[in-house]
Amino acid sequence: MKLQVLYFAWLRERIGLGREDVVTEAATVADLIAELRAREDRYDLAFSDMTAVRCAVDQTLMPLDTSLVGAREVAFFPPMTGG
Amino acid sequence: MSTPSIRVVVSEDDFDLGTEATALEAGPDTGAVVTFTGRVRDVADGLRHMQIEHYPGMTDAALTDIAQQAIARWPLSGVTVIHRYGKLRPGDRIMMVATASRHRDAAFESAAFLMDYLKSRAPFWKKEVTDQGEGWVASCDRDEAALDRWGKP
What we know:
The structure holds 2 protein chains of 2 kinds.
Chain A (H helix, E strand, L loop, with lengths): L1 E6 L1 H7 L3 E5 L5 H11 L1 H6 L7 E4 L2 E3 L10 E5 L6
Parallel strand pairs in A: 1-5
Antiparallel strand pairs in A: 1-2, 3-4, 3-5
Chain B lengths: L4 E7 L5 H7 L8 E8 L7 E8 L1 H18 L2 E9 L1 E3 L4 E9 L2 H18 L2 E7 L2 E4 L4 H6 L7
Parallel strand pairs in B: 1-4
Antiparallel strand pairs in B: 2-6, 3-5, 3-7, 4-6, 7-8
């Protein structure tokens, strides 16, 4: 499947891009992260502290064990700091 | 009470507090309007500006969802949530929430609820740029703990 993957804030800066298409067979968000980390050092570094990473699947905040079946868009970002 | 109004604005532009508050005064049933305004404050190193990033596809829906949760919990006649993004300078307004109800308790409590949820559930990230460099603002445990009093899902 093809996913649109988005990165925000320091994840975007460490990985060096804001969005990309990823072709993957990952079953869950956690599997996708493992695939990305295996790609290159910059991904590995960006995801090295998972306590500081949140994710949204199709624009809804979800836990990392969420299934990717039917998903189109996955976003990774640090804890939000609005207000 | 008629259907509560929800107004959500995500914009680079400034807003007018008076206009927004007055807009919630519609109807003779509204006995209380509470507003909260968040502003960019200076930091020890001297803030040049703050850069606020957001997730365009998700932000409107997340703010609307938070407003709907407030309406489900309190008898409100209206909710307004405005959040800016982009480059903001010390003293600039960042955001506001406003709530309207028959009585003040519901208006005060729901405004506090909206703020607590906005802090850690709306997809915004702040970066501070000072003369010494730049850095992303870290979330604090206090913000997450603030959700506990509302029985966070």
